[in-house]
Amino acid sequence: MPTPREGRSLNSADPTARLSIVIPVLNEGASLADHLTALSSLGDQGVEIIVVDGGSSDASVHIARPLANRVIASQPGRARQMNLGAQHASAPALLFLHADTQLPGNAVEQITQALGRHAWGHFAINLSGRSRWLPVVSTMMNLRSRLTGIATGDQGIFVHASTFTAVGGFPDQPLMEDIELSKRLKQLSHPACLRSKVISSGRRWDQHGAWSTIRLMWRLRYRYWRGVSATQLAREYRDAR
Predict the structure, then answer these.
(1) CATH no. for residue 133?
(2) Which residue, of 130, 145, 203, 207, has the greatest Cβ tally within 10 A?
(3) CA-to-CA distance for 80 and 125, rounded, in angstroms?
(4) Are strands 157-160 and 120-128 parallel, antiparallel or unpaired?
(5) Could you give the 3-state DSSP secondary structure of residue 76?
(6) Is 234 contained in some domain?
(7) Local mean pLDDT, 10-residue blocks, the chain (241 residues)
């Protein structure tokens, strides 16, 4: 697994945890308190919350400290942050959750059951926002992930910790790290594709327009498939936004 700079642990781990939720954060202070508060009740179900901050300039770390089991400082980069969180996790199962994604009510039990039969898996997704095209985008994403076995990070990828380590974790690249992890995990087994839906923010589509965002994402995926480096694509993604 890639080994980014050791983070600074602010809180304590939970040695009794059966699921560690790793949340990469960068300037998510506006909504982070609500997100972590919603997850706090899962502690009774053996869930450990690990927030990995990538150098936020807002109050994200201050907000997370009383609401997470551990808050860890990391070099920026979602893949690096999630790998570092996994290194500090106590539980035998991992869930990688974006800071703007909400879990369904019985998520822990569903993950536990799914990992009893599969090495890894993901949820279906429902994008929330203003655009009337978001239900269409959500349907397309769910269909694509079921047909290809490739999940995106905002679908809530979960995996046995030992399996995650065996495949080397997320590749240390600035974009498409979720696609590459899915490819690695698919070599071991097909994913559990849960029909329960996480709710993820559709702010990208609202801010930049649904169809322009769809075209951008598919163009980036196509070029990645053709062998263009993730570093180059991340540069184009930032420019397009």
Answers:
(1) 3.90.550.10
(2) 145
(3) 24
(4) antiparallel
(5) coil
(6) no
(7) 39 75 96 94 93 97 96 96 97 96 95 97 94 90 95 96 97 94 96 96 76 82 85 75 52
Indicate whether 237 belongs to any domain: no
How many H helices and E strands in the chain? 10, 8
Residue in this structure with the two tokens 């995106």, named with its chain if needed: 152
Which residue is it, tokens 């095209």?
133
The closest alpha carbon to 105, from 209, 196, 168, belongs to 196
Residue 169 lies in a domain: yes
Q: Which residues pair with 127 in a beta bridge?
A: 200
- Alpha helices by DSSP H, listed for the chain, are 29-40, 60-64, 78-87, 107-115, 134-148, 161-166, 177-186, 203-208, 210-225, 230-240
**In which residue are the tokens 């996480």 written?**
198
Q: What is the DSSP letter of 92?
A: S
What's the token pair of residue 81? 């942050």
Range of the domain at 86: 19-203
Tell me the C-alpha distance between 144 and 139, whole Å: 9
Q: Residue 92: inside a domain, yes or no?
A: yes
The pLDDT score that the predictor gives to residue 14 is: 64
List, for residues 115-172, the tens digit of each pLDDT value.
Answer: 999 999 999 999 998 888 899 989 999 999 999 999 999 999 999 999 999 999 999 9
CB 25 within 8 A of CB 60: yes
The number of domains in the chain is 1
Q: Quote the radius of gyration of the chain (alpha carbons, Å).
A: 17
